[in-house]
Amino acid sequence: MKLIFWGGGYRPSAFVLTSGLLIWCFASVFAQPIHFKNRRELFVDDYVTQKVENAEIRLQTPQSAGTAIRFTEPWEGRFCAYVGIVADGIRYRMYYRGAGANADGKHAEYTCYAESADGIHWAKPTLGICSVNGSKANNVVMLEEQQLRNTHNFTVMYDGREGVPSDERFKAVGGSSYESQPERGGFRSYSAYLTYDMDPKLRANTGLFRYVSADGLRWKRYAKDTTALFHDYALDSQNSLVWLENEQCYAVYFRGWSGGVPGELFPANGTRTIMRSTSKDFINWTKPEFMSFGDTEKEHLYTNATRPYFRAPHLLIAMPFRFSPQTKVLSDEQLAQNGTHPSQWKGVSDGVFMTSRGGTRYDRKFMESFVRPGNDSKNWGARSNMPAMGVIQTAKREMSFFITRGYGTPEVSLERMTLRLDGFAALHAGFKEGVLLTKPMVWEGQRLLLNYSTGSKGYIKIVLTDEKGTELAGFGTADALPITGDEVDGLVQWKSGRNIGELKGKSIRAKIIVKDADVFSFGVFD
Q1: pTM of the predicted model, to two decimals?
Q2: What pLDDT was estimated at residue 31?
Q3: What's the domain range around 11?
Q4: Which of 75, 85, 445, 494 has its CA 20 to 30 A from that of 108?
Q5: How many domains does the structure of the chain reveal?
């Protein structure tokens, strides 16, 4: 018997007998077609892609829009980090760790706050909430609570869903799984990492603590937070708290170390990685699980910055801070001249890009750097170039994210990086025509919108076929109008005048033909 296989993931539907050979025919796909209804897809993974010819999916390069904030206040210090951006529908809010000195000159950590109406111009308001060095004239929203290290990595989300109590609109997590250590050179020593020999009473009061707020400024411990979460796990990073609409649950994406087990926080030869736990009610949480990254090289991922993308919330965008702890680029003399703290002399880092569609899997389609250290030597210390949590819209066609620069130096700051909307990656072809064939899809809508950019002689054509590749009448090659120009939500039309609403309930494929063009996303809407 000879088996003929006509494509990945097909199931047998019929067979024929020819010359004594049994030939199986495969006519439909194992997986169900992808359903689209008021939904947008980006070219950041292979979720919708069956095949690409004479084209490529290309990671885009963010552009600098300059410095957004300089961390110059005494309570901010050179170790400002773990920035998170939250949109509440009224303003953009920024939360970050200040790591300055207290009135006694000792290291202290604070949760600081800034806000913006447009995501471009930021202000640090004088809040009058917390007393720092004898004054409330500052932008601090939280002091460290009883050595819980809650301000070390305090991370906020806005929970705007219907039915959420008003005093829980803002939620946050903060804390670590080890006791604060004595100072060393102006910041906390982490020498206990490898042994983790702690008094059980102290250990029971460590971990990730939950907080809530009505206004995002005045915080209190969550009333049902009777014990800290995950105290047997590392947590020594910015831990991302999100609501996952597709899974209808909260999730925390937090620091773990590969090779470890609960209670062994920093295993020998371990690698910094990411774990996940979920909760339906913010009270009870699942046992943490390691995230997977497909068949990719193991790397130290220090932070994860995992958040739903605001124009496609089923898609999680993550911008980890990739750390190479043993690499050193600059000499001691150069680092000293930059004012880089000696603790940051060994190791370099950059920002990378990955995605998730829920569950315990990240997709690392792009292994290259997303944001490089660049030509400023102050960014070549150990923990610079840390992407902040949160991608926001800052203009009609623009989105922004932020990245910490010059960490460990007196000039530490936050830089704003820009991309076009949906423009993390693109289907790209040069002057030779290329094509992307999608997997089977079912479109429930009236309009097909395309985010694209072409050259003056470039174009994009959309051809629709059935599952087997037969062109659909009125949507075929002869009716595909060349699309030239630059639009974020351009309406796709065909010469026949037919509308995709006529295809409701049918399983189809799309051929996206490109020449001297980039396609960033497509979506089906009512």
Answers
A1: 0.90
A2: 67
A3: 1-30
A4: 85
A5: 3
